[in-house]
Amino acid sequence: MKSALEIALEKMEENSGPARRLSSEEKAVIADINTRCDADIAAARLDYDQRISQVDTPEQLQILREELAGIISKIEEKRTSECDRVWNAEQA
Q1: End-to-end CA distance of the chain
Q2: What sign results for the dihedral spanned by CA atoms 58, 61, 67, 69?
Q3: 3-state SS string over the chain?
Q4: Is the residue at 2 inside a domain?
Q5: Which residue range is the domain that position 41 belongs to?
Q6: What is the arithmetic mean of pLDDT over 86-90?
Q7: 3 found inside a domain
Q8: Residue 27 lies in a domain
Q9: What is the rounded distance in angstroms from the CA atom of residue 30 to the CA atom of residue 22?
Q10: Is pTM, for the whole model, over 0.85?
């Protein structure tokens, strides 16, 4: 008897073709992308935490929080784009 996971994987393969397996090199590239993006997000949070601690008004606080959210969103978009490039690259 098949598990629910096996059934789900079979349906996914029927709908989108066989799953692509990443090589060791591709896995390393994705790990590097994730590490760099995590570091960028951490640096942005540290910077904005310092700025936030110095604000005087709720309006300034809201502006800084929105700026930080925008920066994090751009970094996450970059992460997704770079990882997608690795996933969609032709296998050698």
Answers
A1: 36
A2: negative
A3: CCCHHHHHHHHHHHHHCCCCCCCHHHHHHHHHHHHHHHHHHHHHHHHHHHHHCCCCCHHHHHHHHHHHHHHHHHHHHHHHHHHHHHHHCCCC
A4: no
A5: 22-88
A6: 87
A7: no
A8: yes
A9: 10
A10: no
